[in-house]
Specification:
Elements lengths: L10 E9 L3 H9 L4 H4 L3 E6 L8 E6 L2 E11 L3 E8 L2 E11 L5 E10 L1 H29 L4
Helix pairs in contact: 1-3
Length: 148
């Protein structure tokens, strides 16, 4: 079960997108963390031991920021959640994958950041997180809809 996102966190963002591809294809693409740098242009490094399980860890470099994350929720073709703790901030990411009519997939990306870093920098970081969510979803849509 996904960890509940604190919607009252200093930094909170939620975006979604409809993808013209079956949920299995979108999930397989997204769950292969090691391939993220091939289609998510802001990620330059991703290292995970596959297959993913609750408790698995992975490392990524996203927009020049290195982070370690721990998977804390996973249900194939439905959701993936992870948390990161670094530099006076605690971050929770939840991704939902929902089968819609006509074979479309609704993907929802939600994130909350807490801690002194988030409190002190929320006016600067909030728009960057919003932009990041939009870009992530657009990159995922483009890749998932290839050859569909």
């Amino acid at each position: 079960m996904l960890k509940i996102i604190n919607k009252n966190a200093p930094i909170h963002a939620k975006k979604d997108i409809l993808i013209n591809a079956p949920v299995q294809k979108v999930w397989e693409l997204f769950a292969d963390i090691n391939r993220w740098p091939q289609w998510q242009k802001n990620i330059t490094k991703a290292d995970a031991t596959l297959p993913l399980n609750v408790g698995s860890t992975f490392a990524i470099t996203n927009a020049g920021i290195d982070s370690q994350a721990t998977i804390n929720a996973l249900e194939h073709n439905q959701y993936l959640g992870w948390e990161s703790h670094y530099s006076n901030r605690d971050v929770q990411h939840n991704w939902h994958f929902t089968t819609m009519a006509n074979g479309l997939t609704l993907v929802t990306d939600e994130e909350a950041m807490e801690g002194s870093f988030a409190e002190e920098n929320k006016l600067v970081i909030q728009p960057l997180i919003e932009k990041s969510k939009t870009e992530w979803l657009a990159f995922l849509k483009t890749e998932a809809e290839k050859n569909n």
